[in-house]
Design brief:
This protein is an all-alpha fold. It contains four helices and two strands, in the order ααββαα.
Amino acid sequence: MRQLILAAALTAGLLAGGCSGTDVELKGGVFDMLGVSDLNVKREEPKMQDRAGLVIPPSTASLPPPGTGAQPVVASNGEAFPVNPEERTTADAAQIVEKHRAFCAQARQRYEAGLTPMLEASPWGPCHESVLRNFSGKDLAGNKAVGAPQ
C-alpha cells in the first residue's frame, strides 16, 4: 500500500510538472518573503560595447597576377598532392650536402693549384677533412658537420 501511495504521488508530481512548461512564475507572499518571486524584478537590457567599424579591404593592385605563385607538386599520374614537410627537409638537406661537397671540391682545386693560401670554408661549414668530424658528426666547436647522420 505504501508503494502505491508513493507511486501515485510521484506520478501526480510528474504530471503537474510536465504541464507547467519552461516559463515558471513564482507568485505569492511566501515566495516574496523567500526572495524568489520575480514579480517586482525589472528586466534590463544588457549593456554592450559598440562594435568596431567595418574594415575596408586593401586595393587589389598590389596583388600578384593569378598563377604566378607557388605551384603545387604534380605527381607522375597528373594528380597534385601537398608536399610532406619531412620529405622536403630531407631533400633540402641532401641538396645542401651536395652544394657543400661541390664547393669544397672547387676550393681544394684552387688550393692545390696555389690560387688560395688556405683551404676556404663553404657557407655550410669547413672543407677540411677531420677524423673527429667523420667519427662524431661534429667539429671541435661542437657544431654539427654538414652531411653528418642525424
